[in-house]
Design goal:
Blueprint: E1 6-10, E2 14-18, H1 25-40, E3 46-51, E4 55-60, H2 67-79, E5 90-97, H3 102-112, H4 116-124, E6 128-133, E7 140-143, E8 158-161, E9 165-169, E10 172-175, E11 180-182, E12 185-190, E13 210-215, H5 218-227, E14 235-237
Parallel strand pairs: 5-13
Antiparallel strand pairs: 1-2, 2-4, 3-4, 5-12, 5-14, 6-7, 6-13, 7-10, 8-11, 9-10, 9-12
């Protein structure tokens, strides 16, 4: 029997279902599946679900349900046979590498023990899973990459990376949704914008989606950025 997650209070109106205290692909998959199930069939009093890398935050209406009752309902849900996960959508996102990110790409390649060309070729041959959205609205954490991508964050923050910057650390890729400081090493950029506040569907990605980068030139990415389309030339195959 699969162990139940720890159910922990969080703030005044939150219940955290924690599957592990460190990242694992199994814990991440369970968190994604629970969040998807709760979105499809909410618990009584549930108002928001936010999956993270190994946990799920469930916010509730304190006037409609107590935390204890919500926890009881969640335990009952977890005891039921798990539904099959929804088929993943597959995204193919044009991206260019090097350029303004060249110095940090060189550092990343050195840390990985690969040439820059080999490192980017490996990245572009990998189907990455959207492990979670976070830090900024719609911003994906993508992984996992092979062990030689287990590189630390930078010792000091880069003051600003532009939207669409592709960065790496700890076997993951973060594709920045908004301009931001970061301690992750920049590899390149794309015109794909995973969050558009005024769009009918602001979040393009969802946890469990697959994403692969397709090599493009700087000029091609600049043209896609100039078009204003938040998909930035990305193609998606629906499940």
């Amino acid at each position: 029997m699969t162990a139940l997650p720890d159910l922990l209070p969080l703030g005044l109106d939150g219940l955290l279902a924690r599957f592990a205290t460190t990242f694992s692909e199994g814990a991440n998959a369970r968190a994604r599946d629970l969040a998807a199930g709760l979105e499809a069939a909410p618990l009584p009093g549930q108002v928001e679900v936010a999956p993270a890398l190994a946990s799920v935050l469930i916010r509730f209406d304190r006037a409609a349900v107590t935390r204890a009752a919500l926890a009881q309902a969640l335990r009952a849900r977890l005891a039921e046979p798990a539904a099959a996960p929804a088929p993943a959508r597959h995204w193919r996102v044009p991206a260019c590498f090097g350029g303004p990110s060249g110095a940090q790409l060189t550092e990343a390649a050195t840390l990985a023990g690969r040439s820059e060309t080999a490192l980017i070729a490996e990245l572009c041959a990998t189907d990455l899973t959207v492990l979670a959205l976070g830090f900024a609205p719609g911003q994906p954490y993508l992984g996992l990459l092979p062990e030689h991508w287990q590189m630390p964050r930078l010792p000091a923050l880069t003051p600003r990376v532009a939207p669409g910057t592709i960065t790496t650390a700890i076997r993951q890729i973060v594709l920045f949704a908004q301009a931001s400081p970061t301690g992750w090493r920049a590899l390149g950029r794309c015109a794909f914008r995973p969050f558009s506040a005024h769009a009918a569907a602001p979040f393009l990605l969802r946890p469990g989606d697959r994403l692969r980068f397709a090599p493009a030139t700087e000029a091609e990415i600049a043209a896609l950025e100039a078009s204003g389309d938040p998909r930035g030339g990305a193609k998606v195959s629906a499940p």
